[in-house]
Amino acid sequence: MTLLRLEGVTVRFGDRAVVDAVDLEVAEHETVCVLGPSGSGKSTLLRVVAGLQPPSAGRVLLGGADQAGVPVHRRGVGLMFQDHQLFPHRDVGGNVAFGLRVRGSAKPEYEERVARLLDLVGLPGAQGRAVASLSGGEQQRVALARALAPSPRLLMLDEPLGQLDRGLRERLVVELQGLFSRLGTTVLAVTHDQGEAFALADRVVVMRDGRIAQAGTPLEVWQRPASEFVARFLGFENVVPATVSGGAAATPWGKVPVPAGSPEGERRLLVRPAGVVLCGAGLDCVVESRTFRGTHVTLSLRPEAGPVLEAECALAAAPAPGDRVAVAFTPSEVVVLPAA
Ligand SMILES: Nc1ncnc2c1ncn2[C@@H]1O[C@H](COP(=O)(O)OP(=O)(O)OP(=O)(O)O)[C@@H](O)[C@H]1O
Fold first, then answer.
1. Domain named ABC transporter: which ranges (predicted)?
2. Domain boundary among 196, 230, 264
């Protein structure tokens, strides 16, 4: 069932639409991550759903009910923003209990719930600790427990792990995912970090200039970016102009095979690095640099023609900078994109 529905939501500041006719649905128990570069309108979209920003046009429906005129505290949404989330002068328990006390819960009732939430976020018994004594990751968990405390029907996260270092972020993303699925929480999160979005979300929504550039499962978006913008935003660099016909594309790198059924004509072409394969004969390149990625190596190759190519290869097979190599292209890793 649909919990949240946005219909043609537009927010204008002056004559600029920073959110532009956005339609979006979030199903119950679903985690949707809105992803996009800085300034694409992600936070503004969240603020509209929360009731912190009135839309200039369009409707926000929660559980089928139009939220026009419904104030923030009556929408039943939980909010967790990236900074200054915690009250520094309250202890951990006081922070988590805040929303419950405001709602008028009795002390024994909320104390039990606070204890259960702190267990859930991996901080059992931390009620009496001072906020200042917590690490960044612990503070993030307390903020999460506080947002979850009043059992919001929709939890909204704005750059939830933005301040944390990568290792901690990766661990917390996995924990959050488990927690949301155990609790059956419906989540709308915004982030500019594609790794975070792809790890957390059932569905990702990529925004560009206030509009939805693409929506789909992480796998769909990753495998079939809808445009050069989305491809580049995901970090893919191998995008060139191409003329597609008869199962191949004429590109600055020469002929590149494309998947069967690809659209023909003047297009843009994405070759994922995994589809640039070192082989005995093909496009001659010089290795410019290589970066170890743990499970594989990313190579930056200077081809005899066309722009620099990014390739991936196994650790053991990695050539060194300055080496001459030849590459061929694997059609399953090639995506024909619309012309720019
Ligand atoms: N109250 C406001 N008045 C005028 N312009 C605003 C206001 N709030 C936001 N904007 C502008 O709207 C655009 C979108 O802002 P928003 O914060 O929604 O983007 P974002 O995608 O969340 O970016 P970031 O990732 O940097 O937080 C920005 O250009 C911003 O400057």
1. 4-234
2. 230
Domain that holds residue 299: 236-337
Sequence-ordered list of residues with C-beta below 8 angstroms from that of 178, at least 6 positions apart, any chain:
none
Residue at which a domain ends, from 184, 215, 230? 230
Q: What is the pTM of this model?
A: 0.87
Tens-place pLDDT, residues 93-111 = 999 998 887 777 777 788 8
> Is the four-CA dihedral 243, 247, 253, 254 of positive or negative sign?
negative
Q: Atom of ligand 1 at shortest distance to CA of 44?
A: 18
Residue whose CB lies within 8 A of the most ligand 1 atoms, among 18, 46, 156, 157, for a mutation test: 18
For 235-294, the pLDDT digits (tens) are 999 999 999 999 999 999 999 999 999 999 999 999 999 999 999 889 999 999 999 988
From the CB of 136, is ligand 1 less than 6 Å away?
Answer: no
Alpha carbon distance 144, 136 (integer Å): 12
CA separation for the pair 137, 27 (Å, rounded):
29
114 and 146 in contact (C-beta within 8 Å)?
Answer: no
